[in-house]
Amino acid sequence: MFFSIGIKDIIDILLVAVLLYYSYRLMKESRSLNIFFGVLVFIVFWLFVSQILEMRLLGTLLDRVVSVGAIALLILFQEEIRKFFFTIGTHQRVRSAVRFFSGEEKQTHTREDIMPIVRACMAMSKQKIGALIVMQRSLPLNDFIRSGEVIDARISERLIENIFFKNSPLHDGGMIISHKRIAAAGCVLPVAHDTTIPKELGLRHRAAMGVSKETDALAIVVSEETGNISIAFRGAFQLRISAEDLERILTEDAF
């Protein structure tokens, strides 16, 4: 028995392969790989029974399980599905297309906007003052802003240092910078619980990782223990960066 395979079939196979590959990567990162393999084995068994062996009774029972299981999978993998669509939505080309059709303007930061942040981070690094600064990009951070104290002030090196001073009531939370202004401080941010995060990194680093995974924001962390400056962006860390690297990252076109 011969099968006729056309261009459309090849494209179909390639798309399924790509979908399975990215699903595998997503599940591997979220430690749900065993569940993913279990679902795949069940789907293969279901297709084998209902399509190849044509066992009507067992096939009907499995069809009912699959119809209910689809809802169960949505509940079980809700975080992974959310992350999958978030990754698509925040892709650089997708965001460019959205900005083009909606007329949305990309936030740009000049050297005058960046340097007070860089100088403040360097000063706090020398004094080992812990800090967490979140730079809003395309996606709004209104929910996080409302969780803290709204400031809406011009970006100032002295203001940043005073907010994160050890005796300040706002030093434990995160500062959010939006539209070239300090929008709020003392903000509550989502904490990442990834086991891949080094154990020596504290709660500020985990909060920075959490907000970088849930949004497209860039988070700057100054360690209270070591004074090291780190950046979390798109779910990845850049640890122990210099002032020059911080200035370059904040001013480059990708930001």
Q: Order of strands in the sheet with the most strands?
A: 2-4-3-1-5-6-7
Distance between the termini: 56 Å
Q: How many DSSP E strands? A: 7
Helix content: 40-55%
Q: What do you see in this structure?
A:
The protein has about 260 residues and is of the alpha+beta class. It contains 10 helices and 7 strands. The protein has helices at about 5-30, 35-50, 55-75, 80-90, 90-100, 110-125, 140-145, 155-165, 205-215, 245-250, and strands spanning about 130-135, 150-155, 175-180, 180-185, 220, 230-235, 235-240. It has a 7-stranded mixed β-sheet, sandwiched between helices. The longest helix is centred in the first third of the chain and has 23 residues, at about 5-30. The protein starts with 6 loop residues before the first helix and ends with a helix. The mean pLDDT is about 80.
List keywords for this structure.
255 residues; alpha+beta; 14% strand
